[in-house]
Design goal:
The complex is a heterodimer of chains A (about 325) and B (about 325).
Chain A: H1 2-21, E1 26-33, H2 38-57, E2 61-68, H3 71-85, E3 89-92, H4 97-109, E4 113-117, E5 129-133, H5 135-149, E6 154-160, H6 165-178, E7 183-190, H7 195-208, E8 214-216, H8 220-233, E9 240-242, H9 248-255, E10 264-265, H10 271-284, E11 291-295, E12 299-300
Parallel strand pairs in A: 1-2, 1-3, 3-4, 4-5, 5-11, 6-7, 6-8, 8-9
Antiparallel strand pairs in A: 10-12
Chain B: H1 2-14, H2 21-37, H3 44-69, H4 77-99, H5 103-129, H6 135-153, E1 158-160, H7 163-169, H8 171-174, E2 176-177, E3 180-181, H9 182-200, H10 202-212, H11 214-219, H12 224-250, E4 252-254, H13 261-271, H14 283-302, H15 311-332
Antiparallel strand pairs in B: 1-4, 2-3
Classes of the chains: A alpha/beta (about 325), B mainly alpha (about 325).
Main location (chain A): other
GO cellular component, one term (chain A): cell envelope
Organism (chain A): Silicimonas algicola
Chain lengths: ~325, ~325
């Protein structure tokens, strides 16, 4: 490891030397997880789009984009970027916090600018800029909407994502927001952010409970499965389903005033574009961009849905 | 359900050992526990739900029974199902302007699924038999290939069937005859045919002989390679059949479609009493295995027995118990 770090540092210093010699081009490396599910697909789309746009705006910037399908591959990608491209800045959305912390720290020690997106590293203070999604806020906004939509309270079921910190923070935010509103969570199961799993879980919830007033699907993919299960069971006690993330099909339904999908809560995959843009600004201007930039989760309603609808995005 | 209980009767008469009872006992215990914990468990609606959702894995697992009996293995079926689903959706959306919504376009989609499944199965089988590459490696490779292809086809997102078309196609999953939905009917037919093929036909005996001892089978005038190739081709077609049932349910396919189906199918086959090393297979046992796996999930959702974090552990314990029960019974019998 120390050998590797020395090698990396050496490479980065050499790169800095060349960068200083040729003032005009600077290289920004972007390392993100591959498009293995809907949200990541959208994130890949926005990363590519942002890079295309910025390459035109800033001729003095070069971008390297790498997508990894596991944390190990992401570490390799970052090492390759440093060794072969001598990156001056790294924008990274870590696959997992733990395994990526040391390699990103090595990049930082090599003198490059580091921007971390969405998932934080497990050691604080490495990154220059942290563009964060707001998971507790995502849960809170969803909970507040539920409480407002059901003033007399009611019985709801909740579908959770893959058991992770992200999911826990969201659910905790949600639970504290509905506290005292008379809304009772009668069932909570993991649907793993997956359409098929959420379909099965919802079918079982419908068999188990004769009366369900609303569903917090907590994700738009899971909302698709939930809606299909409700539809197939022919149940009309469920008044509405609240998803999350901002998938284009769901935003469209909000826009069209669908009563089953009255709203959606954003957790925008385009936050990667924010991170790349801010990094580019930091590299090319004197404007300070270090610190933490939290992307708030916003409620999408029929009134504002149009500004969240991206028909070209895969998500 | 009626199908395989009917089939167990002659099987039991021929093989009156306790080994037959292992999986059945596990299934019966599971049903009784379920009925005791939540009366809704035995309601018609719940039984229909469980059987219909078991159909995908079940249809695939019947094919997997033959592959494993003949001494092979196929890890690619989950990815293959996702890829075929994606292909089917693309072709149907593409043909929509020319064919319009109607029976022909559904038949086209079904044909695409069956042909794609057959070709994918033949390709696996060809690499394994003719080129003599280890089945584990070939299908591990094709698993990655199909998974990437569907991600690529969907551009990282989700492929969705045209809305009108989906509405028209929907009854293939949700509709049925006399209250029995199509996936259950198709599953039952596949099981009956599979059981006959396995226990009554020359092909079934050839599979067992090939899996038991390749060389002996070869000297006994069994075309080992042809038998193996046929098992993979048949599994491919059955993956196509499962996909035909899967697509109308949600009308979409993505990179997360069919994840881990291969392991569920293999687990079901082994719980049912088929030997992982090959040489002996039981189609009706596989059905019991599939039902046990789906019932555990269903039961855990219907009751609040354990924290949802532990669902996987409960599944694991029941899988291992079911197999131990079977081994113990075998030793006694």
């Amino acid at each position: 490891m120390s050998y590797m770090r020395a090698l990396l540092t050496g490479a980065a210093v050499a790169a800095l030397g060349t960068a200083a010699a040729a003032q005009d081009t600077q290289v920004i490396g972007v390392s993100i997880p591959a498009a293995t599910h809907g949200w990541a697909g959208g994130m890949n789309f926005h990363a590519q789009e942002a890079i295309e746009r910025l390459e035109e705006v800033y001729p003095q910037l070069d971008f390297v984009l790498a997508t990894a399908s596991d944390p190990g591959q992401q570490v390799n990608d970052i090492e390759d970027m440093v060794a072969t491209r001598g990156i001056d800045a790294l924008v990274v959305l870590p696959f997992e916090s733990e395994p990526l912390t040391a390699p990103v720290q090595a990049v930082k020690e090599g003198g490059a600018w580091v921007t971390v997106v969405d998932r934080g590293l497990s050691v604080e203070g490495i990154e220059d800029l942290y563009v964060a999604g707001d998971n507790p806020g995502f849960g809170r906004v969803s909970g507040e909407y539920m409480a407002e939509k059901m003033p007399d309270g009611g019985k709801i079921v909740v579908l959770r994502g893959i058991p992770t910190t992200i999911d826990n923070e969201r659910v905790e935010g949600f639970e504290s927001a509905i506290e005292g509103s008379g809304i009772e969570i009668i069932g909570m199961e993991h649907g793993n952010w997956n359409r098929d799993d959420s379909f099965n879980v919802m079918q079982d919830f419908l068999s188990k409970y004769p009366q369900i007033d609303a569903v917090w699907a907590s994700d738009d993919d899971m909302a698709v499965g939930v809606l299909a299960a409700i539809d197939a069971a022919g149940r009309d006690d469920v008044q509405f389903v609240l998803g999350g993330a901002g998938m284009k099909e769901m935003v469209k339904r909000v826009m069209d005033g669908d009563t089953m999908i009255p709203a959606d809560v954003t957790y925008p995959p385009s936050m990667i574009a924010t991170a790349i843009e801010l990094t580019a600004v930091g590299m090319t201007s004197t404007a300070p961009v270090s610190g933490t930039f939290t992307i708030g989760s916003v409620l999408i309603t029929p009134d504002n849905a149009e500004s969240f609808y991206f028909p070209d995005s895969p998500f | 359900m009626a199908a395989e209980t009917a089939d167990t009767v002659p099987a039991r008469r021929r093989l009156p050992s306790m080994s037959v009872l292992g999986p059945i006992v596990a299934l019966v215990v599971l049903v009784l526990v379920g009925a005791f914990l939540n009366p809704n468990f035995v309601s018609a609606a719940n039984i229909t739900n469980v059987l219909a959702r078991s159909a995908f894995i079940g249809i695939i697992a019947v094919g997997m029974t033959f592959v494993i009996t003949a001494g092979g293995l196929d890890l690619s079926v989950g990815s293959m199902a996702a890829f075929i689903a994606g292909l089917m959706i693309l072709v149907m959306n593409w043909a929509l302007p020319t064919l319009g919504i109607g029976i022909p376009i559904i038949l086209l989609g079904m044909a695409v699924a069956l042909v794609a499944g057959l070709l994918a199965g033949l390709l696996n089988g060809f690499l394994i038999t003719t080129l003599g590459i280890e089945a584990f490696i070939v299908t591990l490779g094709s698993m990655g290939i199909y998974r990437s292809l569907v991600t690529w086809l969907a551009d990282g997102g989700t492929l969705s069937l045209d809305f009108g078309l989906r509405t028209f196609y929907r009854p293939v999953y949700f509709g049925g005859i006399l209250g029995i939905s199509w996936p259950i009917i198709v599953f039952a037919l596949v099981v009956i045919l599979g059981e006959i093929l396995m226990s009554r036909s020359r092909f079934g005996r050839h599979c067992a002989a090939t899996g038991s001892n390749e060389h002996v089978a070869h000297y006994s005038n069994v075309d080992v390679n042809r038998t193996r190739l046929l098992t993979y081709a048949m599994l491919g077609v059955l993956v196509g059949v499962a996909t035909i049932m899967y697509v109308p349910r949600l009308g979409s396919a993505s990179a997360s479609t069919g994840v881990l189906w291969e392991l569920e199918a293999i687990a079901a086959v082994i719980i049912g009493g088929t030997v992982l090393k090959g040489g002996f297979g039981r189609v009706w046992g596989t059905v019991i295995g599939v039902l046990i796996l789906s019932l555990i999930d269903n039961l855990l959702n219907l009751t609040d027995l354990v924290s949802p974090y532990l669902n996987g552990a409960i599944q694991g314990i029941i899988i291992i118990l079911a197999v131990i029960l079977q081994r113990e019974a075998k030793a006694k019998g």
